[in-house]
Amino acid sequence: MANMVTVDPGKLIRFSAKILQKAGVPEEDAERTARMLVATDLRGIDSHGVAHLGSLYIKRIKEGLINPKPHITMVSRAGATAVMDGDRGLGFVVGYHAMTEALKRARETGAGFVSVRNSTHCGAASTYAMLALPQNMIGIALTTGGRAMVVPGSVGRGAGINVISVAVPTRGDVPFVLDMATTVVAASKFEVALRSGQETVPEGWAVDKTGKPLTDPKRYAAEGALPPLGGLLQETGTYKGFGLSVLVDILCSILGGSISISELLTQPDTALRANHFFGALKIDGFMPTDDFAKAMAGMVKVYHGLPKATGVERITLAGEIEHEIEMQRRRGIPLDQQVIASLRELAKEFGVEYDL
Amino acid sequence: MANMVTVDPGKLIRFSAKILQKAGVPEEDAERTARMLVATDLRGIDSHGVAHLGSLYIKRIKEGLINPKPHITMVSRAGATAVMDGDRGLGFVVGYHAMTEALKRARETGAGFVSVRNSTHCGAASTYAMLALPQNMIGIALTTGGRAMVVPGSVGRGAGINVISVAVPTRGDVPFVLDMATTVVAASKFEVALRSGQETVPEGWAVDKTGKPLTDPKRYAAEGALPPLGGLLQETGTYKGFGLSVLVDILCSILGGSISISELLTQPDTALRANHFFGALKIDGFMPTDDFAKAMAGMVKVYHGLPKATGVERITLAGEIEHEIEMQRRRGIPLDQQVIASLRELAKEFGVEYDL
């Protein structure tokens, strides 16, 4: 971790918000997006935070692929469910509104679900699932990802690197936050490997066009494809990872009135779109929140208390490591030189003071 | 597949129902259970069908572990959600009532979810998820499984072989039906291997107490533990399979007022219990069912049309193979000699004519 620069989270939010505003995003949306981007860096998900600000979001706004002032519309046909059209807005803005709507519906009926079409890259899915936590709800956030999964029986890029996140509240303890691509790893792991100068990645992360293992991260962008969670063999569960990817595609794309992400992303005018599916379940619709909190604490204790393998110090549940990183990073977020350079460039381009 | 006996599905249902009635299950519940058991065999899930009738369900009724006449109760605290107590009834009976309740709530509000405690082994989860299909709904069925998953960082059996099933309707086409244990394979694959005389199973399916690969199916019962989907290494996604298992545990056990399956199954008086979580999403609550059906057909076509790897004839989505097996097996279900012997024994024990 040499050559890292530590940056104050509050300053990073204000800086990112200013850049987004200069690029045409309204003030409230810019601030919300900046907060969500930095929240991702805070949790250690370096692949989905401010590293993407210039290279992905600002670039796509300038190219006309992201609409900085979307007219978001919604159709509801039942108390607990709705469909939203994101009008190609920033995924953060669209996602925030859709999740807020799911939470509102869950407060009323116990459950709320919003399927979202015509959106764009929304960062880390857990950012949305976690919006449910302060309201004592279970949050669900699914999103389509780039089309880079190898489909069992096929070669090359066929299905979405679709993502599943679920957040469950606890009281006092660390919340349970699962956030997983349905591939063995997310494509962004290759960006991180390149930024940190890694020369090889583990075998099993990617294959080339012919299906042979690809371990050089430099080759990924041009010809890599990602095996589903469970790998490429039927015996190791390839159909499970692929099945989960298709399920996310159905809930995000088909149920929201779009078409399959695998078709959508091959059409030039819709390339780089994303569809989402957000949901919330009110704990109190099932049982008193106090009882739930107690049972959750009990569950965590059971898993933590399992016998440890040789050399293992602790057993962790989804979200624990990220929570600990956040506690540390609230005092400062380490960013690598490449990310810092991209932020300096944005400052220059938009005439914003670089004060990080 | 030598030594298989082909049995008429209708006769098999009537025979199984008679046995269940003789064991004390009321007529309607016995018939429903028999139909669901045979439906599982019809779809080729040989590990979860009538092979379990004597060895699991009847045995546990006789031992007092399953209550043949449960008093099922329900508490609801919101329009879309509820909690059910299964009173240790047959999982099939409890599961059918809970899924029916989820569907009823989804008809009213668009979404319905029922978390179920104090139930027992309910067979294949897809049997319940598929109950949503004729009603143009997406069906969700989660259940805890036996405690046999190795938890990352631990050794031996620590977490549940918890199961996720989701069924999505199509019109005319084959429905999408995902049904997967959160382990690389379900424990029942070892039963099937033993019944069919297989001497080894693929490496990666199980490990022994010390974490070393276990490939002899005869050793599984005594000392096997199952890696999560994604295997045992962080690089291959072990935390994803484990995370999904814990998520299912939370929704089935914690949200339903039980305790974690990992603790529950270690207590002598609750061993062999199961908790479930059933859900339904009404398509029409999101969009017109016609549009959904068209988009689903389009999606299936996209995946089917992907380039094929050398030697591969077709690409299939979740549920397609099972659907084809069902079309064949409607004319007769092949059962192996061991299963036939167990059915003959049940006939003798309960004084029921063996007419298969």
Overall description:
The structure is a homodimer of 356-residue chains. Chain A is of the alpha+beta class and 356 residues long. Helix content of chain A is 40%, strand content 17%. Chain A contains twelve helices and eleven strands. In chain A, strand 2 and strand 3 form a beta hairpin. In chain A, helix 1 (9-22) runs antiparallel to helix 2, helix 3 packs parallel to helix 12 (337-350) and helix 6 (188-195) packs antiparallel against helix 7 (217-223). Chain A is globular. The mean pLDDT of chain A is 95. Chains A and B meet through strand 3, strand 4, strand 9, helix 8 and helix 10 of A and strand 3, strand 4, strand 9, helix 8 and helix 10 of B.
The helix content of chain A, as a percent range, equals 25-40%
Number of strands of chain A: 11
In N-to-C order, the SSE pattern of chain A is EHHHEEHEHEEEEEHHHHEHHEH
Structural class by sheet pairing and helices of chain A: alpha+beta
- In quaternary terms, these chains amount to homodimer
Q: Poorly predicted ranges of chain A (pLDDT <50, ≥5 residues)?
A: none
Question: What's the alpha carbon Rg of chain A, rounded to whole Å?
Answer: 20 Å
Beta content of chain A comes to: 15-25%
